Amino acid sequence: MPVNKITIKDVAREAGVSTTVVSKVMNAKRLPNGRLDCETSESTAQRVMEVVKRLDYHPSRVAAGLRKGKRFVIGVITPDISEGAFSEAGKKIEEAAYKDGYTVMFGSSNENAGRLRNLMRAFCESGIDGLILTPCEGSEEIIHCIMEKKIPLVLCNRDIPGLADAGCVHIDNKGSIKMAVDHLYGNGYRKIEMISENMKVSSLDDREKSYTETMEAYGLKPYIYRTDEKTVEEDTFRCVREAAEKGTEAIICPRILQSLYSLKAIKRLGLRIPEDMAIFCHDDNPVFNLCHPTVSYISQCASEVGEEAYKMLKRMMDGEAGGKIVISPKVFFGDSTEKTLVK
Fold first, then answer.
1. Given this model, what pLDDT does residue 68 score?
2. How far apart, in Å, are the Cα atoms of 40 and each of 43, 44, 58, 92, 324?
3. Mapped to the 3 state alphabet, what secondary structure does 162-213 carry?
């Protein structure tokens, strides 16, 4: 048969005090000398705590939060929660939030603004204290609506320039691609091209701009191929084949799908890495360290981004301002960009 939940009234009755006294004792800070910092006498506070322990009473954070206008629930929306970097960041956010007593609601926008709108509406109707969001193309108007609701918001991995009052955490996307081009140039490669995606988001824009600017600084001609989301595998194969036919020495892939499909295309075309074509990838994937030759890649630092995004959101939920954090990327150099004879 069900057991009745112990309430604050039960504790008060057993201790012979009011519920107000119990609440003060439970919420009091413990001083360095071990005493509780509250108006109640030490003997009364000790009696209350003994009853709390004997009855195994646990106050409801949700109930306390509702009295303060909080639900202890946050939302996290990523393009695809199953994708490596987003999954790792989400896990770190959930771990940190759990320690603070928060429940996390997850959703994936699938890079679709309409789907993002529906998720945000559902989250707001359910009641959230804050939101961590990776914006997708065409989501600016939707995000402005969430800002009008005064819900603390942190943009994660991508930015929307000019969005006031929102926090933002992402890696240095320009710096990461510059390091890739610098490394390839230093290893003797000159015909360096990029296989990107036909999508308008800040992270990809920054990576493409950095590639173009760094190539031009070296006096080299940049060239960017772009794939479509629905035909990414076929498009990537076509791009790699065209690059090989042009005598391209190295390719840079600023997104994970282009990276993986480029590796597949190079193998399918019978090309050798790095002798026939070097490759530098973006984002983390176990295959980069397991395949032969190993692949040079730029880490998204997903755990660090997720942790900092939650910390910023927590500060904002506590009434502080947001701000922006740009994390230095980690670069791993594999055999796929080793020095080889310039063609």
1. 53
2. 8, 6, 20, 40, 44
3. CCCCCEEEEECHHHHHHHHHHHHHHCCCCCEEEEEECCCCHHHHHHHHHHHH
Q: Is 200 part of any domain?
A: yes
Residues 189 and 293 in one domain: yes
Residue type at position 146 = I
Q: Same domain for 102 and 134?
A: yes
Residue 10 pLDDT: 87
271 and 193 inside one domain: yes
In the DSSP assignment, the letter for residue 336 is G
Tokens of 235: 């498009």
pLDDT higher than threshold 80 for residue 36: no
Claim to verify: residue 177 and residue 292 sit in the same structural domain: yes
Three-state SS for 29? strand
Whether the pLDDT of residue 233 is over 70: the answer is yes
pLDDT surpassing 60 at residue 98? yes
Q: How far is CA 169 from CA 156, 209, 233, 302, 323, in A?
A: 5, 20, 30, 11, 9
How far apart are the C-alpha atoms of 24 and 27, rounded to whole Å? 5
CATH number of 269's domain: 3.40.50.2300
The domain in which residue 28 lies consists of 8-59
Q: At 220, list the tokens.
A: 């080299």
Number of domains in the chain: 3
With 80 as the cut, is the pLDDT of residue 5 above it?
no
